Every structure is written in C-alpha cells, then in structure tokens.
Amino acid sequence: MSNSKDIKLVDAPPGVEGSGFFATQLDTVVGMARANSLWPLPFATSCCGIEFMATMASHYDVARFGSERMSFSPRQADMLLVMGTIAKKMAPILRQVYEQMAEPRWVIAVGACASSGGVFDTYSVLQGIDKVIPVDVYVPGCPPRPEQILDGIMRLQDIVRSESVRRRNSPEYQELMASYNIT
Amino acid sequence: MALETSVIEEKLTDKFGDKVTGYIQLKDIFSFEVDSASMADVMGFLKQDPLLRFNFLTDVCGVHYPDNSIDRQFAVVYHMHNWYDNVRIRFKCFLNGEQPEIETATNHFLSANWQERETYDFYGIIFKGHPQLKRILNMDEMVSFPMRKEFPLEDGGRTDKDDRFFGRKPDNVNNN
Amino acid sequence: MSDLLLPPEHRYAKMIEQRQNEDGSELSILNLGPTHPATHGIFQNILLMDGERIVDGEGTVGYIHRAFEKIAENRPFYQITPLTDRMNYCSSPINNMGWWMTLEKVLDIEVPKRVQYLRVIVMELARIADHIICNSVLGVDTGALTGFLYVFQYREKIYEIYEEICGARLTTNMGRIGGFERDWSPATFKKINDFLEDFPKVWQEFENLLMRNRIFMDRTIDVGPISAEKAISYGFTGPNLRAAGIDYDVRVMQPYSSYEDFEFDIPVGKSGDTYDRFCVRSAEVWESLKIIKQAMDKLPEGPFHANVPDYYLPPKEDVYNNMEALIYHFKIVMGEIPVPKTEVYHAVEGGNGELGFYLITDGSRTPFRLHFRRPCFIYYQAFNDMVRGQMLSDAIATLSSLNVIAGELDA
C-alpha cells in the first residue's frame, strides 16, 4: 500500500465552517463530486485508442483522476471520449451512443481526427465530431500523448467543477441540443 | 529459383495461346496480361498445374486508366505466389470502361471474396458469379465509385472548413 | 436477387422464421459491435444465435474507412509515410520501413548495411510491441487483467526508444528514402540494451501467468480453429497462418533489409486455434529479441543514409547557408523528385502478416495507384467461418487472438 501521506485529497470548496457544520453552495459541492468521479466511455476507433490504452494502463493511470471504472455502457457513463477517426458510416452510431447517455454528459474529442477530421480530408470521413454531437473539450495531437489526454480530462474537470446544477435546464442548453436535433 | 519464368511463359502460351500476352519482367516480379474472358481459367491453371503450383492469391486490386482507349480503361491486378518454389507473378486483366465485368476468383480462392467486394466498392467493377457482391467499406447508399479518377478526394458537399484558411476559392463563405 | 445481398438482419429474420416453422427452434439475432468493448476497434458482426451457440454470422466493416488509397494518389511520395503509420498503428515502424523499401525498389537505391541493420532493429521492436498488445489483450478478454497492466509498462519502454529515434511515440513517421533522418544517438542504444536486459524476464513472467494457466487454456484451446488448407485459401499470413502449421514468413521467403544475415526460427503451431496463435506470437517475441541482439552485436559502422542527394533531404545547416542545398530541399519537400515509370510490389512481414505495397508510378510527383495489401482485411473474412458452431464467448477470444486492427482493416 502506498504511504497515506502521499495521497492528495481534494480541497474543500470555499464556505463557512464552524464546529459541527460546514456551509457552502450546492453547486460547488455537486461540481466537486462530479468532477472527481467522471466515468469515461472510451469510444476508441483507431490510433488514439491505442494511446488511450496506454493512458489507462499502469504507467499513466487515468484512475488517479477519478476515472477508475471504464464504462462500456453509455447508460452509466459521464464522459464520452471519442478517440480516432469517425467515418461517415460511423457517425449515426456515435450519435446514438451520445443519445443513450444520461445527463449530465460531457464529450472530449481526443485527437485531430475527432476534432476536425485531421489529415483525412476525404469523402468518407466526418470532418470533426462536432458536426453531430456537441463537444466540451478538444485535445489536439495525432495522436495526443497520454499526458495530453490526461490534460484534456483535467480541463474537463475544470468545466464540470464550475458548472451550474441548473445548466442542463437552461434555455441556452436546450437551444444547443436543438441545434443538433437531439431531444 | 527452381521455376524459371520462361517455363511459366511457355506453359501459358501452350495452353492459352494469345489469351495471355505481354510477358515482361518488372523489377522482381514476372508479369503478363490476361484476356479478361479467360481470367478464371488461367488462374485455375496456374493454381492446379503440377509444375506451376501458384497456391496463394496474394492480392487483388483494381486500377483505373482514364486515358486508355475505352476497352482498356479498367484493370484488375492479381498477384499470385508459388510457395513451393518461391516465385511471385502478377497479371492484369483490362476491362471495358463502360461495362467493367470480369469473372470472380472466389471459386479458386476464398480470400478473393472481400478483395473483390472492395474492388467493386472502389471502382464499380462487376465480378460475375461472386456470391455477395455489395459494398464493403463505404455505405450502401453511396452511388459513386470513389477510386475512379474522376471522383474528387474531398467531399464536395462539405461546409465545415473555411476555405479562406486553406488558400482555396471561398465558395462556401459569405464574404460581402 | 440473392439473399446474401440483403442486409444480414433481414436475411436472418427470414431464417429465424423458417427454422421456427420447421422444427420450432427459437433462434435470435445478436449484434456484436460496432462499439462492443471486446472488439478493439470497430467492426460489426451480426450473429444468428441458437442460445449461446453461433449459427451464422456476417461481418460489416468500413466503419473507419479513411480512403488511404485515394489520399495516396493525391500526395507526393514523402507525404504517404504518415498514412502508413495510421494503418497498423500498433507497429507503425514496420509500415514506414516497408514503404521506404518499396520506394527504394522503384528508384534502385542500394541502402548501406548499417541502415538495413537499424531498420531490422526497429522493425523487430515494433513486432514485439504489436505482439505485446495482442497477447495481453487476449488475456484481458479471457479475464486476466494483470498481465496487461504488467507488460504495458514495457511497451512504454519501446515507445521511449521510438521517441529517441524519431520523436514520436505511436505514429512514428520514421525514416527517409535511403535511410534515417539522423543517426541513432548513444542514448537510443543504451535504451535498447536496457530493454534487452529487462524485458526477457518480464515476458517470461507473462508467459508463466498465462501459458500453462488452466483457465486460460480452457478458454482458448480448440477455440476458433482453422485448418491449414482453409487458412491458405483465405489468404492468411503471419502469426495466424503459422499457428495453423505453415511456416510461411516473408522475412525468410524473400529476405529484405538483410534478414538473411540473422539466425532465427519460425515458430509454428499445429491446430490453428486461439491458444496456438497466442503461443506463436509469444514465441515470435523471443525470436525478435534474438534478432535484435544479433543486429546490435553485428551493427556495422557507416553512414546512416544512402548517398542519394536527389531524394534525401540535405542537412539543415546547408539548407540555410547553401543555394544548391536549399533548392534540393525545396524540390524534395514539394515532391518534385525524378521517379521512373514502373510497377513494383514489395512485401514485408508486418505484425499481422504479409504487408504488401503495390505501387504504380507514372513519372509524376504522386503515385498513379498505390494499393496496400492489408493482411487484416484479407484474413478477417474468415472470422465467421471460424466461429460458426462455437459459443459466443469463444467468438470474443477468437477475434482478439486474430489481432484485427481496425485501421488496417478499413484502410
């Protein structure tokens, strides 16, 4: 077992502390809980998926960021990691996977292909997954190094931490979903 | 090398005459042309003949020659390999540009199945007698045959890239 | 219209109805993929099931079709290497080197012995990395995660060696026409030596974890077998063919890059089942280590690239200070290199089998036609034949042991 003093705990959000109580905003508590327990759904299609394998294996260990459990079922995942080229044939499937995820859901586009189509500016490749689903974080690289993928996850944690609990009901969000024809 | 290319040439000329032509040694592979109507016979002969024994179909692929005359615009290229004597050969069958049709090789080699489907998918070459000739890599709904030279690499209908940043004519941005 | 042309689910719906009327059996359709976690990449198999048993199946591929061959017709020769990286991304240096050798065959370039040996070293490292992934993931699919977590640390070591050579980890884009972009640094050789020292112990332990493991053997022996005749007819090459008992290996049949200088065995299996495929890959790792050791011992001194100024980029300091070098640099980068009009086929032994490059040039700056013989694509069509009559969980193990790489499958 590792030395317990090496374990870094998440700092408590700002709030009022007294003997036997701690008062803070609900948003920050929920955000903290969500950000440190993001269950990833690896949607690995090609090269970036191999780098993700390295990310989740022993050397880089994505579990350190609260993503211990790979969720291969979209129903029980918070964060969709799209890694690799998405061909036009694949796009409807990706969209279906996204629709199956429960709110709140976040998406990271890992690598150049998922972000923009990358070098494959061809008849068969979707030019970026943001054509079919909304994306929260883009990770550049072809493929990105595991450190970059981890950095992408940390950036997403920042977003999650500061997200209002009401965001998913806001008209802006509804509008965003409507622009993708997702109900 | 136990099996000389002259032997291959001789045997093929004896059996098929002018159906097999254009013998040439290109780099390390002996190549020739086969009349598309007798492709399956030639392949069967190459495979079964006790001396030739080309037991392995390495590769099947198509080529489009838009500048050739109309009856030679498509080619299907077969690579075969004799593992006993370690000899490779390549032969081409030229096909008509408007009606590219050729017999299937699936009766001789199971591996031809998907390779022919791929060739059909890319070039629209019809393999007669193929058990399941439908698209394999592209979507079934696709109508074009993308590897033909007249079809562009890029997707014509795309609106996602701002052409101003790619040095192209900005036909999808409104820059009034 | 033949039934086979229908989408498989329609065809199977018909069959289900027919069977129900005949003998009252209740078959069902199961969709394996395209996002199934055990398929490692995306391909769909629609299976017709009788309970747990597979009656029939049809694979759909093309979910990451990226049109490599069409791109290749639009890119100068130098810019095609990144495409080959992304084909079999588990062992990209083999693809890179195969492509450079194809070009060298077109241009009749003789490569110095040192380059050939360095290429052998990096290709064998890539083969080890490839087999590490395949075998450890087969362990994962049969329920043993430990081996995967253990050997992946050593795959990182191989990636560190790549980084020393070319700066990239996975998609290496390594080399040039005629050699390497720079000589290998002493640090590279040190890392390789360290790897040669540490890795055998690890691989031995990994083998001990699985090879005589009762559970693993029960899950893999007689699972997804294929006979030698059928394997040849299906165009199998590489470890999957050797597991069926045929000792065909391009490295021996048509040695390239001085493979004839090295002593190594070709491991073969017997029954072509999942266990044999595992053992063949495992043994190949030992052979690769042997080859690397010999290459390191015999590595000759000399230049790290051939003397071909028409094709090999001049050194950077000359480009900045010398007019001719600048012109050559510009011409090569823009792809304006003299290429004869010819056709070649060059094959290398990739991680999964015979990786072939069929190149037709017409003297212009791009290939007229470039076809990749992708071993995965050719042998994956046998999958449904191999799993017919087997249990569903066996299909997963079979698929995993075939090591189908989606990038190579779909091009």
TrEMBL record, chain A:
GO terms for cellular component: plasma membrane; respiratory chain complex I. One of its GO terms (molecular function) is iron ion binding. It is a peripheral membrane protein. Its main location: membrane. Its EC number is 7.1.1.-. [4Fe-4S] cluster binds at residues 47-48, 113, 142. It comes from the Bacteria. Keywords: 4Fe-4S, Cell membrane, Iron, Iron-sulfur, Membrane, Metal-binding, NAD, Oxidoreductase, Quinone, Translocase, Transport. It catalyses: a quinone + NADH + 5 H(+)(in) = a quinol + NAD(+) + 4 H(+)(out). It is found in: Cell membrane. SUPFAM superfamilies: HydA/Nqo6-like. Residues 47-156 form the NADH:ubiquinone oxidoreductase-like 20kDa subunit domain. PROSITE patterns: COMPLEX1_20K. GO terms for biological process: aerobic respiration; electron transport coupled proton transport. The keyword Iron-sulfur applies. Its cofactor is [4Fe-4S] cluster. NCBIfam families: nuoB_fam (TIGR01957), PRK06411.1 (NF005012), PRK14820.1 (NF011395). NDH-1 shuttles electrons from NADH, via FMN and iron-sulfur (Fe-S) centers, to quinones in the respiratory chain. The immediate electron acceptor for the enzyme in this species is believed to be a menaquinone. Couples the redox reaction to proton translocation (for every two electrons transferred, four hydrogen ions are translocated across the cytoplasmic membrane), and thus conserves the redox energy in a proton gradient. NDH-1 is composed of 14 different subunits. Subunits NuoB, C, D, E, F, and G constitute the peripheral sector of the complex. This is NADH-quinone oxidoreductase subunit B. The gene is nuoB.
Automatic annotation (TrEMBL), chain B:
GO terms for cellular component: plasma membrane. Keywords: Cell membrane, Membrane, NAD, Quinone, Translocase, Transport. It is a peripheral membrane protein. Residues 33-154 form the NADH:ubiquinone oxidoreductase 30kDa subunit domain. It holds the Pfam family Complex1_30kDa. Gene3D superfamilies: NADH:ubiquinone oxidoreductase, 30kDa subunit (3.30.460.80). Residues 154-176 are annotated as: Disordered. It catalyses: a quinone + NADH + 5 H(+)(in) = a quinol + NAD(+) + 4 H(+)(out). It is an enzyme of class 7 (translocase). Its EC number is 7.1.1.-. NDH-1 shuttles electrons from NADH, via FMN and iron-sulfur (Fe-S) centers, to quinones in the respiratory chain. The immediate electron acceptor for the enzyme in this species is believed to be a menaquinone. Couples the redox reaction to proton translocation (for every two electrons transferred, four hydrogen ions are translocated across the cytoplasmic membrane), and thus conserves the redox energy in a proton gradient. NDH-1 is composed of 14 different subunits. Subunits NuoB, C, D, E, F, and G constitute the peripheral sector of the complex. This is NADH-quinone oxidoreductase subunit C. It comes from Flavobacterium subsaxonicum WB 4.1-42 = DSM 21790. The gene is nuoC.
TrEMBL record, chain C:
It is an enzyme of class 7 (translocase). Pfam families: Complex1_49kDa. GO terms for cellular component: plasma membrane. GO terms for molecular function: NAD binding; NADH dehydrogenase (quinone) (non-electrogenic) activity; quinone binding. InterPro entries: NADH_Q_OxRdtase_suD, NADH_UbQ_OxRdtase_49kDa_CS, NDH1_su_D/H, NiFe-Hase_large. Keywords: Cell membrane, Membrane, NAD, Oxidoreductase, Quinone, Translocase, Transport. It is a peripheral membrane protein. Its EC number is 7.1.1.-. It catalyses: a quinone + NADH + 5 H(+)(in) = a quinol + NAD(+) + 4 H(+)(out). It is found in: Cell membrane. Its main location: membrane. NDH-1 is composed of 14 different subunits. Subunits NuoB, C, D, E, F, and G constitute the peripheral sector of the complex. NDH-1 shuttles electrons from NADH, via FMN and iron-sulfur (Fe-S) centers, to quinones in the respiratory chain. The immediate electron acceptor for the enzyme in this species is believed to be a menaquinone. Couples the redox reaction to proton translocation (for every two electrons transferred, four hydrogen ions are translocated across the cytoplasmic membrane), and thus conserves the redox energy in a proton gradient. NCBIfam families: PRK06075.1 (NF004739). PANTHER family: NADH DEHYDROGENASE [UBIQUINONE] IRON-SULFUR PROTEIN 2, MITOCHONDRIAL, NADH-UBIQUINONE OXIDOREDUCTASE 49 KDA SUBUNIT. This is NADH-quinone oxidoreductase subunit D. It comes from Flavobacterium subsaxonicum WB 4.1-42 = DSM 21790.
